[in-house]
Amino acid sequence: MKYTVKEILSETFSKWPAVVHADLTGKTVMLIGASTGIGLEASIHFANMKPARIIMACRSLEKGNAAIAKLEKQTGYTNAELWLVDLSKYSSVLAFADKFEKDGGRLDIVVYNAGVLPLKYTASPEGWEMTLQVNVISAALISLLLLPVMERTAKTHSTTPRLVIVSSGSHYFAEVPDVALQSPKILEKLNDEKYNTSSVMRDRYPLSKLLVVLFTRALSDHLGASFPVVAVDPGYCHSELRREIGFPLSALNKLIEYICCHPAEEGSRQLVYAAVGGSDAEMHAAYIALSKVKEVSDFALGEKGVEAQKRVWDELIEILSKVSPKIPSIVNQWGPAGSTS
Ligand SMILES: NC(=O)c1ccc[n+]([C@@H]2O[C@H](COP(=O)([O-])OP(=O)(O)OC[C@H]3O[C@@H](n4cnc5c(N)ncnc54)[C@H](OP(=O)(O)O)[C@@H]3O)[C@@H](O)[C@H]2O)c1
């Protein structure tokens, strides 16, 4: 579908749906990118549902501790744990996943909420453009590494875990550019420093959120009915996301945010809906916005999108298999690596 200006305006100025509530007794919820904004507010909603544990994955000890203090103060919940992870570094993501595997606990809900919106090209320590690294590649790596624990949880506790990755309504305005589709490797082309001029970087964030949609759909296809993998749009909210916008654009941004943005708490309700709302069947490969399953962009559904989805999946598996020797066997647990349907 297309996201029209009329629809954007009506969604922006509508009353957003209330938070859904579920019984999370005995369950473990993991929120990746929980230090601030929408992720912290979602953690607070989950805390009100009293799961056995909430793992709040943050990169900063100071911000993570402050987030837990806020959650405890608002909810009285005392089983939130701070786990440090820097999603720009493979070593940190691998250590995080390893720690969880050794922990041996169950894992019912994973919400990958972390995201960045840099306006200029910067490379991660791994040599990937930072938006690709944090919003897409680390999301895929951590998701794949946690799949066996979620699968084990499903079998041991006769439950259906959910994996939620935060996308954005901005994905409706993105396309994988022809120059990348015509290159042997899509992600490699998108990562080319010379290609990443300031005008290309302006479109990088929506493109990263389209890549998230393509990855969640490919992973859902690959996992079949095992458990739902959901992409979610929290909606346009106040947060620290646009922190890198410099003056004078920041002044205009502040004005638009003042008029259009909802509080981060309201956006966080969508993460909660994707994690515990609806039925497992309707959540399969779903894209959630305003507590409804919504069709993804025409690009994602069209010929080029379907081709990009398959190629991006294959490339991610190839890249990540070099990062962790566990990836091929994890992927093969649900069928051959290249299979997404
Ligand atoms: N706000 C909106 O209007 C909107 C709309 C649609 C989608 N979204 C999406 O919603 C999600 C949450 O964003 P937000 O608006 O709440 O923005 P935010 O306030 O900037 O929160 C982003 C979160 O990601 C974490 N993060 C970023 N880079 C990281 C890294 N390398 N390692 C570990 N954590 C990292 C941040 O940690 P630090 O605190 O340490 O930086 C923070 O917890 C993002 O995926 C965003 O793209 C937001």
Number of helical segments with 4 or more residues = 15
Element-level helix/strand string: HEHEHEHEHEHHHHEHHHEEHHH
Strand order of the largest sheet: 3-2-1-4-5-6-7-8
| Strand elements, count | 8
Give the rounded overall mean pLDDT.
Answer: 96
Derived from helix and strand composition plus strand pairing, the structural class reads alpha/beta
User: Hetero groups bound?
Assistant: NADP nicotinamide-adenine-dinucleotide phosphate
The gyration radius over C-alpha positions equals: 19 Å
Shape assignment: globular
Our measurement of the CA-to-CA distance between the termini, rounded to an integer number of angstroms, reads: 22 Å
Beta-strand content bin: 5-15%
CATH homology superfamily name = NAD(P)-binding Rossmann-like Domain
Helical content (DSSP H or I, runs of 4+):
40-55%
The CATH architecture can be named as: 3-Layer(aba) Sandwich
CATH topology descriptor: Rossmann fold
What is the makeup of the main sheet? 8 strands, mixed
- CATH class call: Alpha Beta
GO molecular function: oxidoreductase activity
Protein name: NAD(P)-binding protein
Pfam family, one: adh_short
Organism: Plicaturopsis crispa FD-325 SS-3
